Amino acid sequence: MKQTVFGVVCMLVLTFLAVLFMTIHGRTLRQTETDHALGEAIDAAMSTVMETKIYTVETKEELVADFLESLLIQMNSTSEVEVAVLNADEEKGILSIEVTEHYTHPNGSRGNVSEVRTVIFEKEEEKEAVKHQVEFYLSDGVVYKKYELTEGEVCSIPAVPKQNGRKFAGWQFVIGGSGIAGGTTVVCADGNVTKTVLASGGLPYTVGEDTRLVAVFE
Fold first, then answer.
1. Which of 63, 73, 118, 188 stands the most exposed, by the fewest C-beta atoms within 10 Å?
2. Which residues pair with 117 in a beta bridge?
3. pLDDT tens for residues 137-177?
């Protein structure tokens, strides 16, 4: 009889310990899952808004909706999830969220874990394209051709100017380069068309400042 009672007690103790272990282990797993999913979801939502710019999120509601979509993808459990938006500002790049996951322990009791995460993204200011003037002058000071180009672009060479009784010798750099400018052939972006552009030292001249050239005749 004593052995039977002892065996039953041992069984109950083992069962209790097993349930306790499963409860603690389950809670730990839930906490880890919630923490990981929350971090991943916030990062994904905010990067969409502030970095990748796949589309423009213009309102707080859209920002939160994007976050919830990411959260559903990240969280694989079938538990009940409650999301509280503590702060959301799409212009400043701030998102503060509290996620609470409700679940059932092996013993039937209800449990929950929660995680709060706040992310502040510094949105890089778009740099305005820098424009420069490239001006071609005739020898008498008259503007022959003028281009407005973005910094780093190459410049096309205008048609050869004509002057009665004189032969055109080239374009002389006055500002932005030195010597007589040459010409070189480059392939356009589509890969099928080539064009002749202004060159300096045998290489395409990339615009880095306002540039002035004057026609030289012989």
1. 188
2. 97
3. 997 788 999 999 999 899 989 989 988 888 999 999 999 88
